[in-house]
Amino acid sequence: MSKKKFSLSNKIYSRKMIDNITKKVTLLGVKNTLDPINLLNIRLFSSISIFFVLLYFLDFGYLIAPFATFLFYQLFFPVVVDRKIEKRRKKLEKESMYFFEILALSLEAGRNIKTAIEITTANIDSDLSLEFQKVIRDITYGKNLNDALNDLKTRIPSDNINNIILNIRQSNIFGNDIIETVYQQIDYIRQRRVLEAKAEISKIPIRISIVSVIFFIPLLMLLLLGPMLVNLIS
């Protein structure tokens, strides 16, 4: 059944489109339940439905329907998937500071990389820990550590975390020291989070100004001009 479904999807969607959406969905991690083909089907059939509903029920549907359909089609994945990916990136980077500190401490205690990952995931309950638990399961099922870490990178939407994973992988291959590099990456992630927080704070006055323009200024004008309007009408 899945083969027929996949074969039919290849006739509707290009291979490049399917691969791009699959990569996006993979970035949602091991807990993700979304299916790339189902998402593509939902976008397609919802767009068609919106077009015909607007075309049928609105007086100027022939003008509004194409624009609304195009807008829905283009914004579907940015709203449904990309926002989740960005939210997950921020969450993983927040979790990564503590996770990699524990991992570095395990490595400092003389553990090898695989054992250090096992100890860290056993003591930390987080989404990032779940991803590394998947690495351990992959190794248990016969995959080597380097390939498991390479697969892990495809599930992580953060370049900063992926840099640490790459360094761990290179350390496993070449035997170079990873501890100092991990601490440097942790400091970088911490500094980036501070900058992101400052950027969010700097947006607050703009948001307040927008709310004021939309709500408070018209209300103030109504209060000021209301008595004059009442006098003119009376």
Tell me what the structure shows.
This protein is an all-alpha fold and about 230 residues long. It is built from nine helices and no strands. It has helices at about 1-10, 15-25, 35-55, 60-110, 115-125, 125-140, 145-155, 160-175, 180-234. Helix 4 packs antiparallel against helix 9 (about 180-234), helix 5 (about 115-125) packs across helix 6 and helix 7 runs antiparallel to helix 8. It starts with a helix and ends with a helix.
Protein topology:
Elements: H1 2-12, H2 15-26, H3 36-57, H4 61-108, H5 113-123, H6 127-140, H7 145-154, H8 159-174, H9 179-233
Helix pairs in contact: 3-4, 4-5, 4-9, 5-6, 6-7, 7-8, 8-9
User: Helicity, in percent?
Assistant: over 70%
| Radius of gyration of CA atoms, rounded to a whole number | 26 Å
Tally of extended strands?
Answer: 0
Largest sheet: none
Strand content: under 5%
Shape: flat
Measured between the Cα atoms of the first and last residue, the distance is 75 Å
**What ranges have pLDDT less than 50 throughout 5 or more consecutive residues?**
none
The H/E string reads HHHHHHHHH
Structural class by SSE content: mainly alpha
Total count of helical runs of at least 4 residues: 9
Return the average pLDDT rounded to an integer. 87
